[in-house]
Design goal:
Number of strands: 8
Strand order of the largest sheet: 4-5-1-6
Oligomer: single chain
Shape: globular
Number of domains: 3
Structural class: alpha+beta
Strand content: 5-15%
Radius of gyration: 23 Å
Largest sheet: 4 strands, mixed
Length: about 425
C-alpha cells in the first residue's frame, strides 16, 4: 500500500492532558467490532466498568455528559492506562487523522479539529507539499478501517466504487489547483476564485462524461501559467473580475446568509457558537458591533471619538484593512484551502461531485476569514497566530467531525442557489 501525506505529517505527537481541547469530548465515540469484542471480554473491575459504560447495540460508549466515560480528571484515557495503547478503538487510534482510500493508495492528513494538528500546519511558512511512500497502517499511526460499502448522497444512493479513469484525471486537476493556490505572486482571493472556476468547469466535464475535457482543461491552464504573455493574462483577469469587484453590498448580504446557514448546524462546542455569534453581530452592522464593544468594556457609550467612528463606519474598509494587516501571513489561508482540497477533492472519483468539494474548500476559507476579521475587530485590531489556530480548529471540529453537520453542509453546498459559482465569486472578488 502507498501512503500520501503532507510533509509535516510525522511531526504530530498528541500532547495529552495539556491540550486546550479534548478529542474525548463533545461527540459520540463509535466502536469497531474488534475493539467492542475485546472490551466486552475484559475481566475484573475495569471490565465491569467497560460493560456498564457501553451501548453494545449502538457500538458506542455512553457519554458522561459530553465527555467519554474513560476520560479521567487529568484529561487522560483510562483505557490507554489500564489496557495499553494497542487496545484503543479505531476511532481513538486514528484521530486526528483523516483517511481517504483509493485502491492501493491511502491519503492521510492531520485534521484541523485537533488544535495541535492545526498549530503544526498553520506554522509552516513554506508551501504545503506531499510525500508518497510505501508503508503500512502502523507506520502512519493507523488501525485498519474496513471501507464503507455504500453511501447515501442527496442525488441518489450509489455503490462506493472508485471510478479509476476519473480518479486519474482528477489527481492531475488537483495538482493544478494546488499550484494555483500556492502562486504567492497573486492575492489569495484571486487564487481561490481561479480554483473555483476550474472546479465548475471540471464538473461540467464530469456531468457530460467527457473526462478528456478535464485533461484538456488542465493542459490549457498550465500552458497559460507557463506562457510569457503575462500582460494579456492580467488584462483578461481584470475584465473578468470587473463584473464582481464593486458589488460590496451584495457580498455583505451574501455573507450574512452564509453565516446564518452555519447557525443551523448542530453545536459541537460552545466555543464555535461564540465565534459564530460574534461574526453575526459584526456582519449585522454598526449598532450591534458598538453594543458588543460597549458591553465588553472596549468602548464608551458616549463620545466614541473620531477613531472609533472610523473603526465602526464600514465593514468593507475593515475587510481591506485586515487583509493588508495580515498580508505576510496569507500563507495560512493558502494552507487552509490546500488542506480541504487534499482531504476531499479526490472523493469525487467515487460520487462524481467535484464542484461541491471545491465549494467546500472555498466556503470554509471564507467563513474562517470572516470569523478572523470579527475576532480582530473585537480585539481592537490585533490577531495572533494562536487566534488563527482557535478559529480554524473550532470550524473544523464543527463541520468535519459531526456526520450530521458534514452531510447537511454537503447537501446545501451542492444544491442551494446562493452557493452557485456567481454568488461565491461575488464573495471572493467584491
Amino acid at each position: 500500500m502507498k501512503y500520501r501525506t503532507a510533509q509535516f505529517y510525522k511531526e504530530f505527537k498528541c500532547i495529552g492532558g495539556i491540550c486546550e481541547d479534548s478529542c474525548c469530548e463533545n461527540w459520540e465515540i463509535d466502536l469497531d467490532d474488534v475493539s467492542l469484542k475485546r472490551y466486552m471480554k475484559q475481566g475484573g473491575e475495569f471490565g465491569k466498568r467497560l460493560k456498564d459504560c457501553t451501548r453494545v447495540k449502538d457500538k458506542q460508549f455512553i457519554l458522561n455528559g459530553t465527555r467519554c466515560p474513560f476520560l479521567n480528571d487529568e484529561n487522560l484515557c483510562d483505557i490507554f492506562i489500564e489496557m495499553g495503547e494497542e487496545c484503543l478503538c479505531e476511532t481513538c487510534t486514528n484521530f486526528p487523522r483523516h483517511i481517504e482510500e483509493f485502491d492501493e493508495l491511502k491519503e492521510v492528513s492531520l485534521t484541523m479539529s485537533c488544535p495541535e494538528a492545526s498549530r503544526i500546519m498553520l506554522s509552516k511558512k513554506g508551501k504545503m507539499t506531499f510525500v508518497c511512500e510505501d508503508g503500512t497502517d502502523a507506520d502512519y499511526g493507523l488501525k485498519h478501517i474496513e471501507p464503507v460499502k455504500s453511501f447515501v448522497f442527496w442525488k441518489k444512493k450509489h455503490a462506493n466504487k472508485l471510478d479509476k479513469p476519473l480518479f486519474d484525471v482528477l489527481f492531475e486537476a488537483r495538482q493544478l489547483m494546488f499550484d494555483v493556490l500556492q502562486n504567492r505572486q497573486e492575492p489569495i482571493n484571486k487564487r481561490a476564485a481561479i480554483v473555483l472556476v476550474l472546479g465548475y468547469k471540471i464538473q461540467e466535464c464530469i456531468d457530460s462524461r467527457k473526462y478528456d475535457g478535464i485533461v484538456q482543461l488542465v493542459e490549457n491552464h498550465r500552458n497559460k501559467m507557463n506562457s510569457d504573455n503575462s500582460e494579456q493574462r492580467k488584462e483578461e483577469w481584470k475584465q473578468f473580475a470587473a463584473k464582481y469587484n464593486k458589488r460590496v453590498t451584495e457580498k455583505e448580504v451574501w455573507l450574512k446568509q452564509i453565516l446564518n446557514m452555519y447557525e443551523g448546524l448542530e453545536t459541537i462546542k460552545e466555543e464555535w457558537t461564540d465565534l459564530l455569534s460574534m461574526g453575526m453581530d459584526i456582519m449585522h452592522g454598526r449598532d450591534n458591533l458598538k453594543s458588543m464593544l460597549v458591553a465588553a468594556g472596549m468602548m464608551k457609550e458616549e463620545e466614541p471619538g473620531e477613531e472609533n467612528d472610523s473603526f465602526l463606519r464600514n465593514y468593507a474598509i475593515s475587510y481591506q484593512e485586515f487583509m493588508s494587516y495580515y498580508r505576510e501571513k496569507e500563507y495560512e489561508f493558502e494552507h487552509i484551502l490546500v488542506y480541504y482540497l487534499f482531504n476531499y477533492f479526490l472523493g469525487a472519483a467515487y460520487d462524481h461531485d467535484a464542484f461541491t468539494k471545491v465549494k467546500f474548500a472555498v466556503i470554509s476559507y471564507l467563513v474562517i476569514l470572516e470569523l478572523d476579521i470579527a475576532l480582530w475587530l473585537q480585539q481592537q485590531k490585533e490577531f495572533l497566530y494562536e487566534d488563527q489556530v482557535l478559529v480554524a480548529h473550532a470550524y473544523s471540529k464543527e463541520v468535519e467531525h459531526s456526520y450530521n453537520n458534514f452531510e447537511s453542509l454537503q447537501l446545501v453546498l451542492s444544491a442551494h442557489p446562493i452557493l452557485d459559482v456567481e454568488h461565491i465569486l461575488i464573495g471572493l472578488l467584491s
